[in-house]
Specification:
It contains 24 helices and 22 strands. The chain is α+β, with helices and mostly antiparallel strands and 710 residues long.
């Protein structure tokens, strides 16, 4: 390795190990958790770093899975029983639901193994080992290389590393990835094993699992029983296998003991999961854009979509089921963006970053650090070029491609163009299963109207369609015309089109009004807008690599941890309440009393099962009673993000206290700036989970395979 690369590695090795813990901020790599174990033990943790991560013995990492690629789950029995959030399993629960068997509304409980429901396409993934491969990735990298040459050499090195890691393993169930940390200053290899036979075991009614709906989402106090149960199956040799009736429950290397002791304020908590994406080290222009430009316009457009969905869903049970998962997907980010923007503004995050950037520039000038003096001006100039382009991309994604018919036309065109006609038929069948044309027509009209109001603020030119060159176009009338004329708005017509030979089907598709409408937008986006955005972001990524090295050198006392990137992380903290505003103090616990206070049979999201009302009336809590009530949720100071949904919340002995499912609204800016005063993760108490399984689901037979600690 060249001398400069070696110096970079030595600098990184010294700087990534923080001198002290700043509050409870940080998402730490399991392999390197030894550097944090003393801080964890000071907060009460009783285990060792080997208990958290080891390749030589079973440890906590072996009980944690990446669930479906976007959530976290954990094994809680030696028979493959897995628990995650209700909203993580929501798509599977919805897929099995119908008007006749409304598992979303009524819940689902498999009383025998044969009742457990298979889920096509669902996989859970275990991290088997990780390794620092920075030196191998940067082999033969030198300063004389162009960035293209460097990228190519790194890609070649990574290919060799992953191929070697997978030697002798079945690529159908094993994968290897090399993930960059600190913008490519460090690289880690992850070797993963996936299981694809994962069956639904149990889920509470949505009035428990999604209690409070969008109104309570991202809020505290919370009273949501956000959990669902699955079982992982394997072949007779305990190896991953495709679904088969002959498969047997997987015997995990490690599963979690469940704590029924309860928790108190100040108790240690650890979250072990797969946070998705954070941006802790971005410059002030990026933060300013998120809070003042991007989030507001996306919120505005999604509000229109949600209002239309909610209106139709409230009138028809079948439509409510069809659009429940879509609605949840739209609303989750919609509300998060609101809290994120408010938090960034309240903390003056952009202003604080500008102050830091000014201090950095003064340091670089005083030390005559010529390699850093042009770094920030160049990055800020790139942001000036990027932001209007990104605004146009936001409009494209949140307005044009938010119309289901237009997105379907694009997806189907790609599939048919590739000649995969059977896949196109499957694609169409799945699309129409959960499609309600009146909703989409109204969304088209509302979003296109807003798009053309907002378009002058972006560099994207008006699409050359005669009907749209008139600023007074009636998008309601245009919607009726388009949806009535398009075969892609009708299942039978679409399937008939797909029954044609490939070339004829493609011709018919390209003559369809829906494709003809969306194609010019796609051309503008893919041919003009996207390449410019990609080129600027590529240059920014290159400069951020230097920026990370620079600020680590400049600010030696700061705690640096790698941004989340959907790899397994450890966070830790304590159970704590918070004060979101003057005169308001939140306790860290919620109870069944809060559910009963919100209970309202006239509102779907607050209409709890009658059985829960009856239990409450009699105070018939059985073994789950705690202080005359049932604990429901709690908050703690763990630093979490999207992807941590379903993550186990563990106590000082590594026993399961609950399932992480959300953050408080005032702290959703923690992906960019962590405020220890208000950033709290929200978890469902495992005792409420057990209570619901027992008294609502009548599935206490599951307890026979669980290990409890008092």
């Amino acid at each position: 390795m060249k001398r400069r690369a070696l110096l970079t590695l030595l600098l990184l090795a010294a700087l990534i190990i923080p001198k002290s813990l700043c509050a409870d901020e940080g998402m730490w790599l399991p392999m390197l958790i030894e550097q944090k174990i003393v801080d964890m033990q000071k907060l009460g943790f009783r285990l060792t770093s080997d208990d958290i991560y080891s390749v030589n013995k079973a440890c906590l990492k072996d009980a944690v899975v990446h669930f479906g690629g976007g959530c976290t789950g954990e094994l809680i029995s030696d028979r493959g029983l897995l628990i995650t959030n209700h909203h993580c399993g929501y798509g599977q629960i919805q897929a099995h639901s119908s008007v006749e068997h409304d598992y979303l509304k009524d819940g689902f409980w498999a009383m025998t193994r044969t009742d457990e429901l298979p889920n096509k396409g669902l996989r859970v993934t275990f991290l088997r080992r990780m390794e620092d491969v920075t030196a191998r990735v940067l082999t033969d990298i030198n300063e004389q290389m162009t960035e293209a040459e460097r990228t190519s050499a790194i890609a070649s090195n990574i290919k060799s590393i992953t191929e070697e890691a997978l030697k002798g393993l079945d690529p159908k169930f094993w994968s290897a990835q090399v993930s960059p940390m600190y913008y490519g200053n460090q690289y880690f290899l992850y070797v993963n094993e996936s299981f694809t036979d994962v069956r639904l075991v149990g889920a509470p009614p949505s009035s428990i699992g999604k209690f409070g709906g969008d109104t309570d989402n991202w809020m505290w106090p919370r009273h949501t029983g956000d959990f669902s149960l699955f079982r992982v199956y394997a072949n007779a040799e305990n190896q991953p296998a495709d679904y088969s009736p002959e498969n047997v429950p997987y015997r995990p290397r490690k599963y979690l003991t469940i704590s029924t002791k309860g928790i108190s304020e100040g108790d240690f908590t650890m979250v072990y999961g797969y946070p998705g994406r954070t941006q802790e080290y971005v410059l002030s222009p990026a933060v300013d854009y998120i809070a003042n430009v991007s989030n507001p316009v996306k919120i505005r457009l999604r509000t229109l979509r949600l209002d239309i969905m909610n209106n139709y869903q409230s009138k028809d049970q079948a439509v409510r089921i069809q659009y429940s998962n879509k609605n949840a997907g739209v609303s989750n980010a919609w509300k998060k963006w609101q809290g994120e923007a408010n938090g960034i503004i309240r903390l003056n995050t952009a202003g604080k970053k500008r102050h830091f950037e000014d201090r950095f520039m003064a340091w670089a000038q005083a030390g005559n650090r010529t390699e850093y003096l042009q770094l920030m001006p160049e990055m800020k100039e790139l942001y000036n070029r990027l932001q209007p382009l990104q605004f146009a991309a936001d409009l494209h994604n949140e307005a044009i491609m938010a119309v289901e018919l237009l997105r379907f036309a694009d997806d189907l065109h790609k599939t048919v163009s590739s000649g995969k006609m059977d896949a196109a038929v499957t694609q169409a069948t799945n699309f129409f299963k959960d499609y309600y044309l009146p909703i989409d027509k109204d969304i088209f009209s509302a979003l296109l109207t807003e798009y053309y109001k907002l378009l002058p603020q972006s560099p994207l030119p008006s699409v050359n369609l005669p009907a749209l060159n008139n600023a007074c176009v009636d998008f309601g009338a245009l919607s009726n015309q388009l949806f009535n004329a398009s075969a892609l708005a009708n299942k039978e017509k679409t399937l008939a089109l797909l029954a044609l030979p490939k070339e004829e089907a493609l011709g018919a598709l390209e003559n369809d009004p829906a494709w003809q409408f969306v194609a010019p937008f796609l051309t503008e986006y893919t041919a003009k807008l996207e390449p410019q955005i990609r080129e600027i972001n590529s240059r920014l990524t290159l400069l951020y690599r230097t920026w990370m090295r620079a600020i680590m050198e400049f600010d030696k006392d700061r705690v640096f941890f790698p941004d989340a990137n959907s790899t397994l992380r450890v966070t830790y903290g304590t159970v704590q309440g918070y004060r979101p505003a003057d005169g308001i103090t939140y306790l860290p616990f919620s109870t069944l009393e809060g559910i009963m206070e919100k209970d309202n049979p006239n509102i779907f999201d607050y209409d709890i099962p009658q059985s829960l009302r009856d239990i409450y009336a009699k105070k018939d809590y059985g073994r789950w009673a705690t202080g005359g009530t049932i604990p429901v949720c709690f908050i703690a100071t763990n630093h979490t993000s999207g992807g941590n949904s379903g993550s186990p919340v563990l106590n000082d002995r590594g026993h399961l206290l609950g399932l992480n499912f959300d953050r408080v609204w005032e702290g959703t800016m923690s992906d960019i700036a962590f405020d220890p005063m208000v950033c709290r993760n929200i978890s469902v108490d495992i005792r409420f989970v057990l209570f619901v399984i027992d008294r609502i689901g009548h599935a206490s037979y599951l307890f026979e395979e669980l290990d409890f600690s008092e």
